[in-house]
Amino acid sequence: MLRITRLDGPERTVLKLEGRLMGTWVHELARYRESVECQEAGHLIVDLEGVTFIDEEGKKLLQQLWKQGAQLAATSCWIESIVEAITKRAES
User: Fold this and answer.
1) Which fold has domain 2-91?
2) Beta-carbon neighbour count of residue 84 at 10 Å?
3) Residues in a beta bridge with 15
4) I need a labelling partner for 54 at 20 to 30 A (CA). Which of 36, 74, 75, 77 fits?
5) What CA–CA distance (Å, rounded) separates 22 from 57?
6) What residue segments make up the domains of the chain, in order of their start?
7) Are 22 and 57 in contact (CB under 8 A)?
8) What is the pTM of this model?
């Protein structure tokens, strides 16, 4: 299961994720992202603090969001390592 909480601020929108980013939940996040109106790079933050698992499909979606200008916020070491791998792979 994945919970998505949207927090709108004056300058940016945060999508706070909690749970497992895998399977059908990846598609749900992609659909939800399409409904968020953040046209400028850096105005969308994907908060991964509450994420407990990310499958390959989830990693691909996060990479796509990052390429579109979203910031990926991570606090745990394993999520930080995933974010680092995603961004390095995207830069290659």
Assistant:
1) Transcription Regulator spoIIAA (3.30.750)
2) 12
3) 6, 46
4) 36
5) 7
6) 2-91
7) yes
8) 0.88
